[in-house]
Amino acid sequence: MGDFHQNGIITTLHNLSGRSLREMEQELTEFSARRPMALILPSLFSELEGDALPHIVDELTLVPYLTEIIVGLDRADESQYRESLRFFSRLPQDHHVLWHDGPRLKALDEELQAQGVAPKELGKGRNVWYCMGYTLATNRVESVALHDCDILTYDRSLLARLIYPVANPRFNYEFCKGYYSRVADGKINGRVSRLLVTPLLRALKKILGDMEYLEYMDSFRYPLAGEFSFRRDVLTDILIPSDWGLEIGVLSEMYRNYSNNRLCQVDIADAYDHKHQTLSADDDSGGLSKMSIDISKALFRKLATRGVTFNLETFRSLKATYYRIALDFVETYNNDAVMNGLTLDIHSEEQAVELFAENIMKAGEAFLDRPMERPFIPSWSRVISAMPDVLERLSNAVDADHAEFSDG
Q1: Cα torsion through 279, 280, 286, 289, rounded to 10
Q2: N or C: which end of the chain has fewer CB within 10 A?
Q3: DSSP annotation string for 60-94
């Protein structure tokens, strides 16, 4: 049971009453007549063979209010794409699988690459970006939710609570971020959010002084949650990173494009667990190590666009300030864990803080060394300007793949 306290500068919508799912879904079904709804699922083929996604699909078959489900499929060959079509075929909603590794979408991507308006690297950001383009192309929905495919504790109430704020015609929200507690198996999880993002934002406040952007970012209870919802018009002008900075990039774009009263966050689950990344202390090209570098760079880039000037001394001071704040948070989380009968490994927590501190410096040095780097995927409005028929061609390619390779 959450409290009703409002903190920060955006609206927080709580779970105060344990409202029945049946009642909420009935209301969402009524909303769907005015605001048709879609769900985007960015997926790896390997997730079809895991424990989480089959159960997620089981739950989605019971959802009555969705107009369509859009699946972005990565790392799949032809036989795996065929298998994915069979896997999702039991969904009663209109659904579409974007085969990103198929010849049609790869050919379209190569044309966009030639014009300099395509994602530059593989990953979730690229997957989500193409799914957003397909949502614009079909023009069938007004409200869209997005969540990951590795949620082990999934219940369809998560989706209902996530999409409700942008689906209710009486609300004026353009964007909604989901949040939840990251507690599972007697442990507090969510190290990157707890031990990197929050203390880094607090350190930036100390170094840079009061900035509404930093206050805004610090208002989100779980800024790295992969679950959010939005109105369709959000999609045209958003600039998102293609790396692990996706969530930070999306929040930053919402701040740039909309006033704070059009944005909110909502409590979507009492329990949440998903696939965990390794720390990768000896390899900053993967795991939480790469994630921490990408996230730090995303914050630095966004601050630079707001007129902040960085130099090496700034990053050295930031690293030291962050380190002290993060170590204090370790003690705070340990006390919270003890009071709730949970376990927290202080040694591994401090190892993570030490790694994140080093990676803040690496991110800062990379930011200074490559000032001309273009980390953001172009907005769809720019892509349409460069290739006016791109949305029609994207939609046709998805339909042609389905027609050719579906068993039905």
Answers
A1: 60
A2: C
A3: HTT--SEEEEEEEEES--HHHHHHHHHHHTT-SSE
What CATH number did the domain enclosing 216 receive? 3.90.550.10
pLDDT at 4: 85
User: What's the CA gap between 281 and 147, in Å, rounded?
Assistant: 28
Asked if residue 357 belongs to a domain, the reply is yes
Structural element, H or E, at residue 24: helix 21-31
State yes or no: pLDDT of 14 exceeds 60.
yes
CA distance 2 to 264: 16
Range of the domain at 67: 11-405
pTM check: above 0.85: yes
* CA distance linking residue 309 with residue 160, whole number of Å: 42
Distance CA(159)–CA(149), nearest Å, equals 12
CA dist 128 to 246, 282, 328, Å?
9, 29, 36
Alpha-carbon Rg for the chain in angstroms: 21
Task: Determine how many CB atoms are found less than 10 A away from the CB of residue 243.
Answer: 23
| 221-238 pLDDT, tens digit each | 999 999 999 999 999 999
- Could you report the per-residue pLDDT of 138-148, keeping only the tens digit for each? 999 999 999 99
Say whether 223 sits in a helix, a strand or coil: coil
The tens digit of pLDDT for each residue in 57-113 reads 999 999 999 999 999 999 999 999 999 999 999 999 999 999 999 999 999 999 999
Look at residue 131 and tell me if it is in a domain: yes
Q: How far apart are CA 238 and CA 227, in angstroms?
A: 17
CA dihedral 230, 393, 32, 223 (to 10 degrees): -20
d(CA 292, CA 355): 9
Say what the pLDDT of residue 408 is: 59
Residue 315 lies in a domain: yes
Please check whether residue 5 lies inside any domain of the structure. Answer: no
